[in-house]
Amino acid sequence: TIHLHLCICLFMADLVFLVGISQTEPEGGCRFVAGLLHFFFLGVMTWMLLEGVQLYRMVVLVFNATIRPLYLYLFGYGIPLAIVVLSAIIRPKGYGTKQHCWLSLKDGLIWSFFGPVCFIVILNVFFFIITVWRLAQKFATLNPDLSKLHKIRAFTVTAVAQMCILGLMWVFGAFLFDKGMTVVEYIFTILNSLQGVLVFVMHCLLSKQVRDEYVQFLSCICTPQKKRYSDFSSTNPSSSQSQGSRSGQHTGESQI
User: What are the transmembrane regions (predicted)?
Assistant: First the structure.
């Protein structure tokens, strides 16, 4: 769930950025684009924070590691929406400039974005340090549930890498719209594109479960309809029941 909504926010932010960042006319449309960018980029950061919190709960707290989806949605989308609405009420003219459809750098409105970003990065550094430390302790002991630990370690490595790329990206993003910053623009674009590459490699190419789903999907497309029907009719009921019982289990891993 968390990875899904993080990817949705990242996709929407990049899409709006590519399509609308330079569309400064009309003024109202430019302000709307700036507000969307503000919301979706903050959404990326809040869902990344939720990822750090969930990993912390899974490794450190262990028990009751799941978070109710309603709370995830309220935090992941509610916090960015509240920040954007308050910023628009306080400084409505700070959305959109004559050069770009982004937050104004002159009246301090930009800190309604960089302030939460800095706070989230600091919090995630704290969560990840404790998570990595506890993971190292668990691997040092004779733990029978090594498969689960390996999954959590993979989640943690991905989350730390995402945080590093996002944090570094917005260090350069702070100077993105200054004049004569072509090199910074290239670095920002490269780091931004690495987010999607990282998610695809870590959660698709390196995930056996996702690879198996791809293989099953492709086999369903390539297999004739009659053969699929015969395979379905000959399926063992007991195996389907066991699969249903396994799919009904709700753990902290499924939320990440």
Answer: 32-50, 70-90, 110-133, 154-177, 183-206
Per residue in 117-126, pLDDT (tens digit) is 889 888 888 8
Domains of the chain: 2-233 (1.20.1070.10)
Q: Is the dihedral of CA 89, 91, 93, 94 positive or negative?
A: negative
| Residue entry with tokens 């919090």 | 123
d(CA 32, CA 27): 9
| CA nearest neighbour of 26 among 85, 101, 89, 88 | 101
Which DSSP string corresponds to 113-148? HHHHHHHHHHHHHHHHHHHHHHHHHHHHS--S-HHH
Task: Give pTM, 2 decimals.
Answer: 0.72
Residue 116 makes CB contacts below 8 A (sequence gap 6+) with: 42, 45, 46, 79, 83
Q: Judge contact between 62 and 24, C-beta under 8 A.
A: no
User: Hey, is 234 helix, strand or coil?
Assistant: coil
Question: Please, which residues bridge with residue 103 across strands?
Answer: 95
User: Rounded CA gap, 227 and 233, in Å?
Assistant: 10
Show the DSSP H helices in the chain as ranges: 2-20, 27-56, 69-73, 79-90, 111-140, 146-173, 182-200, 208-222, 225-233, 237-247, 252-255
Structure tokens at 199: 């998610």
pLDDT tens per residue, range 164-210: 666 666 666 666 655 656 676 777 777 777 777 777 776 677 677 77
